[in-house]
Every structure is written in C-alpha cells, then in structure tokens.
C-alpha cells in the first residue's frame, strides 16, 4: 500500500508529476481491493470476507462478518461497508446521508444517524448501464453518479 501526498502551490489547480511524492510504504502482505484511510487508520477490503483495520503500524486487525466487502466509505470514526450479499456496488457518505448504489441501477438514500432508508432513486441512463461510482458534496446538496455507459449524472 502506498501513501502519497500532493501539494499545489500558488493556488494552481493542476498537480505536476514532480509534486507527487511517496512518503511511506506499508506492506500489509496481501491484496488490497478497496481502501479508505485517514491520518490514524487505514481500512481495507482483502480477498475473502470482512475488512481489515490497520493503525499504520503492527499487524492489520481482521474484522470478519462473513460478507465480501465490495466498497468502503469513512467519515470521522465510522466505517461504512457495502457488501455483495446486499447488492451494494458503491457507497458515499456526507454529513447527513449515506448513499448506496445497487446492482439494479438504484441509488438509495439513508439517514446517517439512524441508518434508515428515506428514498430510492432509479437512475435513468437506459439500457443495462450499471452505476460504478458515487460521490457527494459534504453538505448533501449534490450527488454525482457515474455509470458503465460513460455518463456522469448530477442529482440535486
């Protein structure tokens, strides 16, 4: 696993190759299929079931809940996992909501505090396009969904 940082000086919006530097390498001794991290921990999905929590030193702790993790999101000290048994393909979290995309082309919105589903949005890209990525602004005003047909949809 490589941890890198990027710096942009003078308000530039592009980052040149010379500005990206590898500062640490952590060998977790297995394939990392999904990764979320912050300054104190890295959480990753290995091959097989469960998730591993790594505190940047020592051995990763395996948390096994007998599900294969498809996607991860982290906000604060909470880790959110989308598992294949629940057909969740991708996940994103903002201040108020958790958004999950299913393999059936539906985005579900959940209240973060109670983990209660409050809405379902059927994405209208037509055909058999699958939602491949989700992201949201931190205030929850906009949701972006990318699909396998090359489209990025913006929801307000």
Automatic annotation (TrEMBL):
InterPro entries referenced in this protein's UniProt entry, alphabetically: E3_ubiquitin-ligase_LIN, WD40/YVTN_repeat-like_dom_sf, WD40_repeat_dom_sf
Matching Gene3D superfamilies: YVTN repeat-like/Quinoprotein amine dehydrogenase
Name of the protein: Uncharacterized protein
Source organism of this protein record: Heracleum sosnowskyi
